[in-house]
């Protein structure tokens, strides 16, 4: 039996506008990064105030940092150790805080997790984390 569930996180990669787009569990696009809209809520956690959508999922941002490699068509991509499992390599990212948009959050997370200061060149897009559960 195959069962898939959403982890409740949506990653916004290198947005450079004031509003992000989140795809909810039903695949509907919701404008939910505008902190003045009713679709967002602010909740406190251990790391400070984070932005959550109307379903309570924490909105997240991540930054893909690319450096030129030997081949211009094959750049090096910066990865950091995962928090829950340090042996996993992940793209730097984390929750969007109260007074920032997705692009500001992505830049902050890259600096916090990798110590790298960078600029946003373009918006890569967004993706949603899906966890697939298999029962034998």
UniProtKB/TrEMBL annotation:
Superkingdom of the organism of origin: Eukaryota
Occurrences of domain Nudix hydrolase (ranges): 57-136
Protein's GO biological process: adenosine 5'-(hexahydrogen pentaphosphate) catabolic process; diadenosine hexaphosphate catabolic process; diadenosine pentaphosphate catabolic process; diphosphoinositol polyphosphate metabolic process
Keywords attached to this entry: Hydrolase, Metal-binding
InterPro entries according to UniProt: NUDIX_hydrolase-like_dom_sf (IPR015797), NUDIX_hydrolase_CS (IPR020084), NUDIX_hydrolase_dom (IPR000086)
GO molecular function list: bis(5'-adenosyl)-hexaphosphatase activity; bis(5'-adenosyl)-pentaphosphatase activity; diphosphoinositol-polyphosphate diphosphatase activity; endopolyphosphatase activity; metal ion binding
Family annotation (PROSITE patterns): NUDIX, NUDIX_BOX
Pfam family, one: NUDIX
One term under GO cellular component: nucleus
Name of the protein in its database record: Nudix hydrolase domain-containing protein
Organism from which the protein derives: Parastrongyloides trichosuri (Possum-specific nematode worm)
């Amino acid at each position: 039996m195959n069962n898939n569930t959403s982890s409740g996180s949506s990653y916004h990669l290198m947005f450079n506008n004031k509003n992000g787009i989140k795809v909810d569990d039903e695949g509907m696009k919701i404008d939910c990064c505008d902190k003045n809209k009713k679709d967002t809520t602010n909740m406190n956690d251990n790391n400070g105030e984070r932005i959550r959508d109307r379903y309570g999922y924490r909105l997240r941002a991540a930054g893909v940092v690319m450096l030129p490699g030997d081949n211009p068509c094959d750049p090096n991509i910066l990865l950091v150790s995962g928090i829950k499992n340090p042996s996993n390599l992940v793209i730097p990212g984390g929750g969007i805080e109260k007074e920032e948009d997705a692009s500001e959050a992505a830049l902050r997370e890259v600096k916090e997790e990798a110590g790298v200061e960078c600029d946003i060149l373009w918006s890569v897009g967004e993706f949603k984390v899906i966890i697939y559960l298999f029962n034998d």
